Amino acid sequence: MTKRIGRKPTRAERQHLDKLGLQSSDWLVVSKGEYVWQVVHRFVGQVKEIRSENWI
């Protein structure tokens, strides 16, 4: 079993991930800045930086 790096997204975060075209159940939130979030894929480990809700 591998150690989880991030945490599960909240309801608002899941909705934002869905708006960006990402499958929200597959991503974990690592860090949240004012304009950029860092998320990691649960299974593959791919890291992405996405725009926050404040950016849009």
Based on the model shown, name its key terms.
globular; 16% helix; 1 helix; DUF6906 domain-containing protein; DUF6906; alpha+beta; 56 residues
List the SSEs and their pairings.
Layout: H1 11-19, E1 27-32, E2 36-41, E3 47-51
Antiparallel strand pairs: 1-2, 2-3
Summarize it.
The protein is of the alpha+beta class and 56 residues long.
Structure description:
The structure is a single chain. This protein is of the alpha+beta class and 56 residues long. 16% of the residues lie in helices and 30% in strands. It contains one helix and three strands. The protein has a three-stranded antiparallel beta sheet with strand order 1-2-3, with no helix packed on it. It is globular, with a radius of gyration of 11 Å. The relative contact order is 0.23.
Report the uncertain regions.
none
Largest sheet strand order: 1-2-3
* Broad structural category: alpha+beta
Q: What is the H-and-E element order?
A: HEEE
Total count of helical runs of at least 4 residues? 1
Strand content: 25-35%
Q: How would a crystallographer describe the biggest sheet?
A: 3 strands, antiparallel
Average pLDDT reading: 90
**Share of residues in helices:** 10-25%
Number of strands: 3
Describe the global form.
globular
Distance between the termini: 37 Å
Radius of gyration based on Cα positions? 11 Å
